[in-house]
Amino acid sequence: MKSKQKGTFNAHAFLASAGLARASVAYRRAEVIFNQGDPCEHVLYIQRGGVKLSVLSEAGREAIVAMLGPGEFFGEGCLAGQPIRMGNATATTDSTVLLVDKDQMVRLLHKQPAMSDRFIAHMLARNIRIEEDLIDQLFNSSEKRLARTLLLLARYGKHDTRVRAVPRISQETLAEMVGTTRSRVNFFMKKFQRLGFIDYTDGLKVSNSLLTVVLHD
After folding, report:
1. pTM score of the predicted model
2. Sign of the torsion formed by the C-alpha atoms of 35, 86, 176 and 123
3. pLDDT in tens, 137-180
């Protein structure tokens, strides 16, 4: 994964060159990376694939917290003294994840300012995303929430292509992320397809034009 701008810090290349390659672990689709309650000992970095973060209530109900992709960190709670995992992490597709010991991660952040800046930028972006998700849940319709979720899964704004494929995801999972029923998701997905915003011909593809649903009052 090469940087597009000269001088831009490449976290992927740095972590690979920092003697951490042996800590890369391959996960199959739907394989658990860690469970709620597991010891919190590593910061994880997605080299390839995707990861779902979720929490499970005492009643057994799952709530999806985030869907992450290549170039994103997770499990950083260990750096703040979190002793156990507060949620679950599951591979959404065949993935490669780099596990960095928390003490080693602290040393890297102290010794490499560019790495520290990259990590802080990630944390700020994550906080902004959480705030946006909360506002989305409070004020937007389920149709707008679904459209925004699909655009985020397609990593809208991070690529130049107008249409991008989304890793395989069920309507049940989308319903959990959006906070609605599967039948409502099915209804809106058919509507989006009819309007040309998404395409099911060969896997799910999302067009940037879906943004019009999010922006429409």
Report:
1. 0.75
2. negative
3. 888 899 999 999 999 888 876 666 788 888 888 899 899 888 88
Half-sphere exposure (Cβ direction) of 56: Cα atoms closer than 13 Å: 12
- Those residues whose C-beta lies under 8 Å from the C-beta of residue 49, and which sit 6 or more positions away, are 27, 69, 70, 91, 92, 93, 94, 95, 96, 97, 167
Do the beta carbons of residue 115 and residue 9 sit within 8 Å? yes
Phi, psi of 8 (to 5 degrees): -70, 130
Dihedral of the alpha carbons of 169, 175, 176, 181, in degrees to the nearest 10: -150
Cα 104 to Cα 30: distance, rounded to the nearest angstrom: 28
- Residue 141: what residue type? S
At position 171, the amino acid (one-letter code) is Q
Q: How many whole angstroms from its chain centre is CA 87?
A: 14
Cα 95 from Cα 167, distance rounded (Å): 11
| Joined tokens for residue 110 | 């102290």
Domains along the chain with CATH numbers: 11-135 (2.60.120.10), 140-215 (1.10.10.10)
